[in-house]
Amino acid sequence: MNKRALVLFSGGQDSATCLAWALERYELVETVGFDYGQKHRVELDCREALRGAMADPKWGWSGQLGDDHMVNMQALGAISDTALTADKAIEFNAKGLPNTFVPGRNLLFFQFAAAIAYRRGLEVLVGGMCETDYSGYPDCRDNTLKALQVAMSLGLDAPMVVETPLMWLSKAQTWALAAELGGADLLDVIRRDTHTCYAGDRTHWHDWGFGCGACPACELRAQGYRAYEENLA
Predict the structure, then answer these.
(1) I want to staple 169 with a disulfide (CB 3.0 to 4.6 A). Which of 41, 65, 173, 203 is the partner?
(2) What gap in Å lies between CA 175 and CA 190, rounded to an integer?
């Protein structure tokens, strides 16, 4: 049975929920973040506070939370021409794919994470990718990540298990999962300390957290939170 995991931890709502999910399941959980020149780099600044919150003894996870790793992937931002890595407005192509899509981002994230996991003796990679409420990114799809799991395991000659606990959840269900894992306290942590907004806005407060309230990431997060609250009523 796998006992050690590495969580792809951006500082956002989904990855924070996945970190709590992993801490409930594995004896040791380490985290990895990626600096790829994203305009909303403030998400990386949220990671320390989130890790500190997750280590609070009240949840019983402090003994499982291990080391954090940060990978410099500025080259990805340099070769990308997207609304997340360059000064341009968010637009959608004819297929409905937003120009916030950074080609190859999740593929590279997992490969770098696998290299760290291999060195650290970690057996599971956990990511917050979702194919239910998402922006249509092809590297978030279940089939993509299943294929990547096979390729990484073959390339390393060692099993690499890719877990995506949010894959088939709506955003409302992701909020509900956080509540199930850590109650109202964890919900407050995720609302207050995580960052999702593509504009990097941490000045405007909403009931669902900080953000501009207009970008696709804010809209998904806000809609999910409102749906979650409606389900409670």
Answers:
(1) 173
(2) 9
List the structure tokens of 140. Answer: 């978030």
Domain tally, the chain? 1
Kindly state whether residue 221 falls inside one of the protein's structural domains. Answer: no
pTM over 0.85: yes
For residue 66, is it within any domain?
yes
Residue-wise pLDDT for 22-39, tens only, equals: 999 999 999 999 999 898
Cα 40 to Cα 30: distance, rounded to the nearest angstrom? 23
State the Rg of the chain over Cα: 17
Give the list of residues 6+ apart from residue 16 with CB closer than 8 angstroms, or none. 9, 50, 54, 178, 189, 190, 193, 194
Structural domain span for residue 48: 4-192
Q: What residue type is assigned to position 93 of the chain? A: N
57 near 201, Cβ under 8 Å?
no
**Any idea what DSSP says for residue 36?**
S
For residue range 99-153, what is the model confidence (pLDDT) as tens digits? Answer: 888 888 999 999 999 999 999 999 999 999 999 877 788 999 999 999 999 999 9
